[in-house]
Amino acid sequence: MRIILANKFYYHRGGDCIYTINLEKLLKQHGHDVAVFAMNFPNNINTEWNKYFPSEVNFKFGLGMIEAFMRPFGTSEVMRKFAMLLNDFNPDVVHLNNIHSQLSPAIAEIAHKKGIKVIWTLHDYKLLCPRYDCLQNGIKVCEKCFDDKHNVLRYKCMKNSVIASYLSYFEATKWNRKKIESITDIYVCPSKFMASKMNQGKFSKKKLFVLNNFIDIKKCYRENYSRKNYYCYIGRLSEEKGVETLINAANSLPYKLKVIGDGPLRQELERLSTANKIEFVGKKDWNEIKGLVGNARFIVIPSEWYENNPLSVIEALCLGTPVLGANIGGIPELIDESFNGMLFESRNVENLRCKIDEMWNASFQYAEIAKVSQDRYNAEKYYDEIMKIYKN
Asked: Most buried of 41, 140, 186, 367, CB within 10 angstroms?
């Protein structure tokens, strides 16, 4: 088959980018022809498809601001270059990922009009929430825009800015549910939770297909599953990730915590840490992560937003590392409390503190967790399922 993968960035930036790059590799390994469509960006992987990439836009005041404001609605450059790629590559399938703002759903409309099958993997809640994360002002979980997109204006949810919120509102009304659904054949939902929210937002059940994310399980193979006396957090150090809740719980416990990652809250979180038993190790590459997470007694995912199908959980489990996860979003679907971890109430410091203590003193079959998880999240299993979607 001939497949175009579209994502706003084309480098290892976040979960959506990693998924797109891994899927490209997987499809090529099985003999498919794959093209990529993304925005030009300095960090992008060099590819033969660069000539089709629309120019970079920056959503900050200065030159190019008009182009940036218009990009979410579908600018002439994006549409022209994507149409060129369609004509030159002649795909059977266009597989969309995270395309809003820098590319826009205009590319789905172009592909649909040409009779090309459009598949869309949903990495966030942008089709339901103009902010994309179902957080009111980035703090409180909120679903008010599921029914009325005016609420993004009422609460100034985009950067607490009237202008940014109006831009998101107009984008949501242009690419409304009825229009988006008419140009998309299948939505791939990485979690049952995502599918349930899409259905709650009145998207047709017939177009919702639940398929967990996958990883290259070979990178998770270990010679032994021994553990050291610490537990981990891995992820971005930002408000919605709930790391402050974790630090507040960890401060009152005697166990060593290693915090892997970086972000805007790092300095504040380091200030909140009252003992040297909490160590901030910064951002690490995979080989370092494999050692840190693979030797940890467990990891904590204290999220305070609707996590979809976090790769950090999947990777930890495939390393044989149990997970203590917030009972929110798609996280509970990944955790079997009788086998590979536990759940706690999101935002509840005391409940988290008790569960960390319980996890520390629990016994887990690390090698068995790895074996079961690698079978569940392996690339070949994913390939079989995605091909059913492409060919259906």
From this structure: 186
The CATH number covering residue 349 comes to: 3.40.50.2000
- Residue 100 falls within a domain, yes or no? yes
DSSP state of 2: E
Half-sphere exposure of residue 250, counting CA atoms within 13 Å on the CB side?
29
Per the domain annotation, does 173 fall within a domain?
no
Region at 27 (left for phi over 0; alpha for psi -120 to 50; beta for the rest): alpha
Could you tell me if 202 and 102 lie in one domain? yes
Q: How open is the CA angle 387-391-392, to the nearest 5 degrees?
A: 115
Residues 285 and 387 in one domain: no
Q: Phi and psi for 150 in degrees, rounded to 5?
A: -60, -20
Average pLDDT over residues 39-44: 96
This prediction has a pTM of 0.95
Residue 87's Cβ-count burial label (10 Å; 0-12, 13-18, 19+) is: exposed
CA dihedral 369, 15, 234, 281 (to 10 degrees): 130
Q: Do 223 and 285 sit in the same domain of this protein?
A: yes
Based on the domain organization, do 238 and 382 belong to the same domain? no
Average pLDDT, the chain: 95
Domain count, the chain: 2
Q: What CA–CA distance (Å, rounded) separates 255 from 278?
A: 9
Q: Give the per-residue SS3 of 344-370.
A: ECCCCHHHHHHHHHHHHHCCCCHHHHH
User: Which letter does DSSP use for residue 131 in this model?
Assistant: T
Name the residue range of residue 95's domain: 2-123+185-214+378-391
HSE-up (13 A, CA, CB side) for residue 163: 7
Same domain? For 238 and 113 the reply is: no
User: What was the pLDDT predicted at 66?
Assistant: 80
Q: What is the pLDDT of residues 289-326, one digit of tens each?
A: 999 999 999 999 999 999 999 999 999 999 999 999 99
